[in-house]
Amino acid sequence: MRPVLIPSSQFLIAVLVVCAFAESAAQQTFTGRLSDSVCAGSHQSKAATAQLTDRACLFACINALAKYVLVDSEGQVLPIANQDAMGLPLYAGRPVRITGERKGDAIVVVKVEAIPAHLHIGHVVTNWRDTPGSRGFLPVAVDEARVAALHAGLAASAASLDDIKLHAGHVLHALDPAVEPKGPGTGYGVKAAAIGARQHLDFAARADGATASITTHAVDVSSSLSRALESLGEAIAIAQRIRAATDVADARRLAADLAAATGAHAPSLHRLLRAVGTRHLRTDEVLDRSGQLRAIVRTPNWDDFVHLAFSEIRACGANNLQVVRRLRAMIENLNETLPGHRQRDLQEQSALLDQEVERLFRYPQERILAGLADSQGLGGHSSKVKRARKRAARRV
After folding, report:
1. I need a labelling partner for 47 at 20 to 30 A (CA). Which of 17, 64, 149, 276 fits?
2. 167 and 257 both lie in a single domain
3. Is 377 exposed, middle or buried (0-12, 13-18, 19+ CB in 10 A)?
4. Who has greater pLDDT, 334 or 269?
5. Which of 63, 95, 114 finishes a domain?
6. Which band of pLDDT confidence, cut at 50, 70 and 90, is reported for residue 20?
């Protein structure tokens, strides 16, 4: 029998196919969070002592000769054999999907990639390629909103028509640089940042790796952003009317409305506090099968939410009577509707608001009005306002 000659090209193709099949058969996919061999599932004690973020703590441990490890969803710590694998520093501290081969107890890493759902959340919170400083959409939106609130307050307290218009222009720039390209903001704008955050939250809710928790919270926050964008459109319209005003009295009235629109994102924040105030807020703990604590996932507590809702608005808008009254109405409503254990932080915010009123308002009549809640922040001539003014008049 004569031997069959196989062309060398066909032989090489066959070898490559067999090798590729063998390689794919040996490789597995592992998911979890990249950590270090010292802190493993939790950086809480070491990070808190050194006042570091979890990611900074991880790098500190790596620099002190710890090793990268993967902590899976059950808290199991999986060593990584090839510590020089590409992608380990980039995704350190983050949820990842690792493709690799199991050798003994360790993983030989072939590829490290972000889990798509978490990648989009990272774009919302941590980083994005075209934002100022490549930060996440939400931090950029918050910074731009601070600029808008600051200049809305300055417009409301300005004396001349030119000054009111100047600060209204600065508000426009911070909200949407497409409308006003010059100003003290970064040039990105609240509008673009909020749209980007909403878009990537929607991506996260539909992406591979989205848990039920991610989907629920992404939808909730996306809805809040949609409402915020509607309010932002109203603020832009008010600022444009100010710039077109020819009478200082009209401009002042509009500036007060602008301060309320930008300084009191209160309706959305009010809904947020009412929702979380009735929930059990806790730090999630990940236990292994034996019940041993393996990881602690930090989540915002009630103090964090209250600080987020009140501090920036009070700092930027407390000199505006309408903003103060709207915040006071929010505090009163939350005290009435939330459980008693939530009220201590609200009472502290009320006391801080009182201190700002004493510091910023010179006239007794204004101080009395600032002490009256107004859920709309319109400062209308209600019977309560009239009675307050009569009391103030008798005291003078």
Report:
1. 276
2. yes
3. buried
4. 334
5. 114
6. very low
